[in-house]
Each structure stands twice: as C-alpha cells, then as structure tokens.
Amino acid sequence: xxxxxxxxxYRPRFHFTPPSxxxxxxxxxxxxxxxxxxxxxxxxxxxxxxxxSTDLVHWAHLPIALYPDDLGQIYSGSVVVDExxxxxxxxxxxxxxxxxxxxxxxxxxSGPQVQSIAYSSDRGRTWIKYAxxxxxxxxxxxxxxxxxxxxxxxxQQWVLVLACGNRVRFYLSxxxxxxxxxxxxxxxHGVQNVPWECPDLFELPVDGDSGCQKWVLQVSVYQxxxxxxxxxxxxxxxxxxxxxxxxxxxxxxxxxxxWTEYGRDNYAPVSWSNIPDxxxxxxxxxxxxxxxxxRDLPTAPWSGAMSLPRQVRLRTLAEGVxxxxxxxxxxxxxxxxxxxxxxxxxxxxxxxxxxxxxxTLEIVAMFQLGTAAECGLNLHTGETDHTVIGYDxxxxxxxxxxxxxxxxxxxxxxxxxxxxxxLATDGMVTLHIFVDSCSxxxxxxxxxxxxxxxxxPRSDTRRLEIYAIGGDVRLVxxxxxxxxxx
Length: 486
Fold this sequence. Notes:
By secondary structure, this protein is mainly β. 2% of the residues lie in helices and 50% in strands. The strands form seven sheets. The chain has a six-stranded antiparallel sheet with strand order 23-34-25-30-31-32, with no helix packed on it. Strands 24-33-26-27-28-29 form a six-stranded antiparallel sheet, with no helix packed on it.
C-alpha cells in the first residue's frame, strides 16, 4: 500500500496532528484570554508550529509562530503570561513571552545551544524576537536546552529550569530578560549517563490537601544510542520534593527512579501555564512517539501526534506519594453512543466478544480478580493480528503487547510488550482506555499506572475480546463509548 494513503488511514481522529510534516515535542503550553495555546517542534529545520483551542479537544491551526534565524533553529521552550509587564514589552498591559533554545553550530559562549526570548502583544498571533538575544549564554555544555519558566510567588521572581546534561539548572530573573544562575540539581539522582530533556517544575497538593503541597520536577531522558541497561527502563522520570525558589530538594533517595509512565510512546510532556485558579488543575500532554523509530513510522504526509491532554495529581499509594495521570474531563464531548454490560464471568473457554465495537473508542473496564493469572482485552482481533491490553495478576503488572498488532516491520525496536507495576485495589483492577486510529492510551486504577502505545492495524477488523488466562475473572462493568472523529 502507498505509504501516503496508509498514513492518512492511520491519522488520529481525535488526537492533535499537524496538517502535514513532522511534529515532536510540545512547547509553550499556556492559557491566555480564553485559549489554550499549543506550540510544537515542527518541520526538519525546527520551527514552532502553533494551534489554539477553547476546550482542549477541538484545535485550530495557526501560522508558524517562530522561525529559525541567524542565531539558530528554534528548539523547545515555554511561554508565560507577563501579567504585570515585568519585561517592559507591553506598555503596562499583559502579554505573552516565549523562552526557547536557539540551537546552532557555533562554539561557546554563543552556542551550540543558548536561550532566547520573543514576545507577543496580540494573543500569540505574531511574535517579535528580543534584540538582546540570547538572554542566557552557554558555558560549554552541548546539551543546554528546553527552558521552562514559571513565576514563583513566594519569592516574587521568575524561575527558569533548564536541561543541562544529566541534570537541570535553575536561573532567576525579575524581568525575563536578565537571568542569574541559582543552583543545580541531578548529580547522582535518578537516571544518569544520558542527557535530560524538557524539564517541568510545578507544585501540587498531595491527595487534594491544599495544606500539604509538594513540588514535582519532571524530565525526559534522551536516548541517543539505543536502550539504557536499567531494568524496566522508560523514557521519562520525575522527582518529588521541595523548592524554595532557589534550590530543589529530592524527598526520595538519589538512586530512586520514579517513572512517569510505562509505555513506549509518550515523551517530553510539559504542562500548561496560567491555568486559572478557578480551574486549579495541572494539565499536560506529550509527544506520542519514540526517538528509536519515530522517523520510520508508516505515515505520510504527516508524522507524529500529541497524546491526549491529561490532568496530573499527587496521590498517596501503597508505595508512597506518586504522580498520577487521567484524561481530561473535556474529552467526554467525543462520546457518540454508549453500550454497557455488567457482572459477566470470563473464563479461558468463554471470553466475551464484541464483533463491531467501532474504530475510535473509550473503554472503561472493571475487573474483580479471581483465579485467572491474566486478564484484559484483545483489540483489533483478526485472522493474524491483535493487540493485547492486559493485567498480569501474579506479577501485578499492567501491559500492552503489540508484537502482532499489525504493521510492525518498519523498525525492529517497535514490536513487543511493555508496561509496568500496578497494584490491584481490594482485588479490583480498572482500565480506562482510549483507542484512536494508530494509538492506545491506558490509564490503570485512576491513573496510578499509564501505558501509551502506537499501533498500526493492517486490517479493518475491529473485533474486541475480553479474555482470561489460567482461571476465571469477573467483569464487574464494561462501558464502551463510540467516539466521534474531529
């Protein structure tokens, strides 16, 4: 099949994709004047693509926001609302300031990666680059990128966190133009020996208790030369601790690694800034792909998509305080038709079959574990192909197996099984699943474990099977929502 024709068949129906061309990391997520802005890495010589939404579901494409220039290509970064015009760009009114990495091939201190700013007085429609760029020069590190900026209310200053090799650096400013180095975090903590990327820093209440706040430092881990030899290695890690406006302190032992999720296809998530206090959520999304095979995907004329927007929280689980993710509530508008079942006994000899569930789905399945060693769903089952979304009851492990999911031959790193630990709750396992044309996102037990995976089904077979292996399991409830295409 022609790649371009197949590629359009695989184009997501309710995930964000560019009209054409390459997309990777989300950038500059900000809410301003009733709009959610999504900027993103776009095209081979990096630009910032741009789209806006009023509901996190329907997106309107806008012209390119930032183009490469004499200082280099436009790599990742962030956008803030300068409410008090601390920068002096807006004549006393609020405006948007973008902070991004200029990447080139110059030697230090001009390059190869430096930090620059641009500003917009018209709700992000046009941008002016600051004449004094760069605002942070490079001290000689080849990996010196992806600034994320936030206002730190307690110390009344702007804080910038920047990826710098296998650690992050913090910088401080009163005006977004003049920055001073504050501190560094990461030496000996978490995953080492590979560059960290796309940091994010935010504060969240633990278990919804506003009197118990913790800071989360999220970083992605860039693999240049294949998989890292760490058991259960994933591509994103986070730290929980305290931040006083200058220094981040990790609550966990340095060798402790907290994985953001257990799939292969969510990378570089960053959160929206300036979400109104009346909303109060911390919202983010990531790039739904993987550098090991992103350039080989069987799609054209587009390549790459964003994950669903998600709400992140801190919850106390059996293993400690952990970050959880759940799809945003706004996605309910996609539901066209719902069918529900309850109290079904599932055995190896008697799976539950749904012949034509639909191509774009939201599934909520609740299992009461019994004697089965494994239970879950077989999706897109046909003569030879199927994708498994399963729970290993003995190993307490949530997983997706895409070894036989359809087209997998484009890269040897693509097929296989991946997942991570998830404890049952009082013998119950709940799977909240979104299925699009080329992706599956699984949120297990209220988002305590998340697995995101690309798939490329070869046939139009849409059969769905609820299965059990090695014993029985009770399907307490199953809600199947057919979703509309945007």
